[in-house]
Write a structure and sequence with these properties.
By secondary structure, this protein is of the alpha+beta class. The protein is 40% helix and 15% strand. The chain has four helices and two strands.
Length: 110
């Protein structure tokens, strides 16, 4: 894929994710996170540990990625050559979440 097209696809996906999160900011919603091993799945079930956030290799930086669509979490892994093995769902009050709007170029570049 042409780098410009890939960047445009990522930007469009980021905008879609942001729109989904802002839509649900005031309510508790079901969100999904997919992992690539049973050990990672158990680690998430034991509690989300920020020590495992990898800002140097994750395009999301030091964050825990969730989506309102389980298929999106699988596609995100697939886009990076990984295969999801378990998908975990959470009820999350998004009004209590810190949302990062990566559609703002100044924020995304920082």
């Amino acid at each position: 894929m042409d780098p410009a097209d890939e960047c445009a696809d990522q930007t469009a996906n980021t905008r879609r994710l942001f729109a989904v999160f802002t839509k649900f900011l005031a309510a508790e919603n079901t969100v999904f996170h997919t992992v690539t091993s049973s050990g990672a799945g158990q680690g998430v079930l034991n509690g989300i540990d920020p020590a495992f956030f990898n800002p140097s290799t994750s395009r999301f930086g030091p964050a825990f990625y969730v989506s309102d669509d389980a298929g999106t979490t699988l596609a995100e892994l697939s886009a990076h050559g990984a295969e999801g093995t378990q998908t975990i769902w959470f009820n999350l009050n998004l009004s209590q979440a810190n949302i990062l709007d990566l559609t703002d170029p100044a924020i995304a570049k920082a």
